[in-house]
C-alpha cells in the first residue's frame, strides 16, 4: 500500500495486514487507486492513510456494480472514475451512511410472530449479522447501532438470524412485564431478568427471548452483566399512551387524566410529558367540545420508504407545520439526515407550511 500526498492512495488488495476483498466483490483487480475524502472521515483524522486503511475490506453490492470500502466503524462507496481519462481501477470514495428504512424493510419481511408461527419460508428471508453487514455494505459498529434503532431481534432457534418482533407480540410482552412489575412492587430502576422470566404467565411465558428483547428495548441502557436493567419511564408512558389512543378518539383533557392514571403506581411522581404523543396521534380542535380531539396515527404504522411516507402524510393532511410533521419523520432519517433535509427533498414550504412537492413535468 503506497501513499501519494494526503488525497490519494494506491491500495493493494489482500496484501499482508492491508485491505481485503469480500467474496461479494469478485473483481479481477488487485490494485485500486482511490481518491480519499477528508482525513477526518478516514480513521480518526490522526492516523496516516496507510494506517487508517489497515483492516478495511471491499464489499460488493447486491444487484449493483458499486462496491464499498468498509472499516470497523464506517464505510465509503467506491465510484469508478471516467475510464477515458483515468485507469479502470481508479475510484473516488464518498461516505456511505446506512439506510435505516431499507434495513427495517429487510428485517420486517420475515417478522417474528411467535415460535409457533416460524417456518422455513421466513428463515430463508433472514440474514445473520455478518450477512446484513455485507448486504447493507455497512461496518460492524454502524450495523450494531442501526439494529438498536430499528429494534432488531435475533431468533435463537433460527441460528440467531435477525428480524423484528411483531407489534402485537411486543405489546403482549410489555403488558405482561408491567403487570409482573406492578404486582410485585418492583423498583423500575432494578428489574432482574431471571426473576421476571420466572414470574411471567400465559402464552408469552414461553417466549423468553421476546421478554428479554422487550425489556432491553424499553430500558435506559439495556440489560447489564448482572442481568439487571432500568426501565425507561418515558417508554412506559409512550406504551400506555399508545394503548389508550388505539381504542378511540379522545378529548385532550380526558385523555391526559386517564393516561396519568394508567401509569404504574411506582411512577406517582412522574407526569408524562405531552411531547411523547407527537409521533402517536393527530390533534384537531373541536369547537363543539372546546378541546382538541386526539386520533391515533402512529408513525410506526406508516411506510418506511421516505417517498411513500410523505405520500401517506400528505394524503392525511394537505399541509403541515414543520413542528407537527417532524415527529413522523424522525424514525426514517439516515445518520447524515435530519427532518429538515427530508422536507426539502420531498415537500415544498409555502406561507409557513409544508405541502406535497408537485411531480416533475
Q: Could you describe the largest sheet, including whether it forms a barrel?
A: 8 strands, mixed
Question: What's the overall average pLDDT, rounded?
Answer: 87
Low-confidence stretches: 1-6
Total of DSSP H or I helical runs spanning 4+ residues: 13
Structural class: alpha+beta
Computed Rg: 24 Å
What oligomeric state do these chains adopt?
A: single chain
The N- and C-terminal alpha carbons lie at a distance of: 49 Å
3D architecture notes:
- 33% of the residues lie in helices and 20% in strands.
- The protein has 13 helices and 18 strands.
- It has helices at 49-53, 100-108, 120-125, 129-135, 140-149, 167-183, 193-199, 208-217, 233-245, 252-262, 306-316, 322-325, 339-346; strands at 2-4, 8-12, 20-21, 31-35, 57-61, 64-70, 75-80, 90-96, 153-155, 161-163, 191-192, 228-229, 250-251, 281-286, 291-296, 319-320, 347-350, 353-356.
- The chain has an eight-stranded mixed β-sheet, with no helix packed on it. The chain has a three-stranded antiparallel β-sheet with strand order 13-15-14.
- Strand 9 and strand 10 form a beta hairpin.
- Helix 6 packs across helix 8 (208-217).
- Keywords: DNA replication.
Compact description:
The chain is an alpha+beta fold. It has helices spanning 49-53, 100-108, 120-125, 129-135, 140-149, 167-183, 193-199, 208-217, 233-245, 252-262, 306-316, 322-325, 339-346, and strands at residues 2-4, 8-12, 20-21, 31-35, 57-61, 64-70, 75-80, 90-96, 153-155, 161-163, 191-192, 228-229, 250-251, 281-286, 291-296, 319-320, 347-350, 353-356.
Amino acid at each position: 500500500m503506497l501513499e501519494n500526498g494526503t488525497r490519494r492512495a494506491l491500495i493493494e488488495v489482500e496484501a499482508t495486514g492491508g485491505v481485503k476483498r469480500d467474496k461479494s466483490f469478485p473483481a479481477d483487480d488487485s490494485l485500486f487507486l482511490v481518491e480519499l475524502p477528508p482525513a477526518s472521515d478516514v480513521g480518526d483524522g490522526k492516523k496516516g492513510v496507510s494506517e487508517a486503511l489497515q483492516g478495511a475490506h471491499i464489499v460488493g453490492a447486491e444487484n449493483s456494480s458499486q462496491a464499498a470500502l468498509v472499516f470497523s466503524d464506517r464505510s465509503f462507496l467506491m465510484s469508478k472514475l471516467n475510464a477515458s481519462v483515468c485507469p479502470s481501477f481508479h475510484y473516488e470514495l464518498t461516505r456511505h451512511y446506512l439506510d435505516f428504512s431499507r434495513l427495517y424493510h429487510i428485517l420486517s419481511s420475515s417478522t417474528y410472530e411467535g415460535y409457533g408461527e416460524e417456518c422455513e419460508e421466513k428463515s430463508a428471508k433472514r440474514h445473520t449479522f455478518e450477512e446484513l453487514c455485507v448486504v447493507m455494505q455497512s461496518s460492524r459498529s454502524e450495523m450494531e447501532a442501526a439494529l438498536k434503532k430499528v429494534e432488531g431481534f435475533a431468533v435463537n432457534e433460527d441460528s440467531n438470524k435477525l428480524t423484528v418482533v411483531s407489534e402485537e407480540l411486543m405489546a403482549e410482552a410489555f403488558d405482561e412485564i408491567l403487570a409482573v412489575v406492578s404486582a410485585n412492587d418492583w423498583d423500575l430502576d432494578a428489574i432482574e431478568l431471571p426473576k421476571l422470566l420466572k414470574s411471567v404467565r400465559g402464552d408469552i411465558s414461553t417466549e423468553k427471548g421476546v421478554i428479554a428483547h422487550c425489556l432491553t428495548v424499553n430500558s435506559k441502557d439495556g440489560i447489564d452483566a448482572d442481568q439487571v436493567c432500568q426501565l425507561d419511564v418515558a417508554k412506559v408512558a409512550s406504551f400506555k399512551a399508545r394503548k389508550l389512543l388505539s381504542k378511540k378518539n379522545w378529548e385532550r383533557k380526558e385523555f391526559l387524566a386517564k393516561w396519568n392514571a394508567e401509569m404504574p403506581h411506582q411512577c406517582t411522581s412522574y407526569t408524562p410529558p405531552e411531547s411523547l404523543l407527537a409521533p402517536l396521534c393527530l390533534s384537531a380542535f373541536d369547537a363543539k367540545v372546546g378541546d382538541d380531539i386526539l386520533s391515533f396515527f402512529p408513525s410506526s404504522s406508516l411506510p418506511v420508504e421516505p417517498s411513500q411516507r410523505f405520500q401517506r402524510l400528505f394524503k392525511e393532511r394537505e399541509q403541515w407545520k414543520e413542528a407537527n410533521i417532524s415527529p413522523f419523520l424522525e424514525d426514517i432519517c439516515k445518520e447524515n439526515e435530519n427532518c429538515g433535509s427530508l422536507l426539502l427533498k420531498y415537500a415544498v414550504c409555502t406561507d409557513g407550511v409544508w405541502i406535497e412537492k408537485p411531480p416533475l413535468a
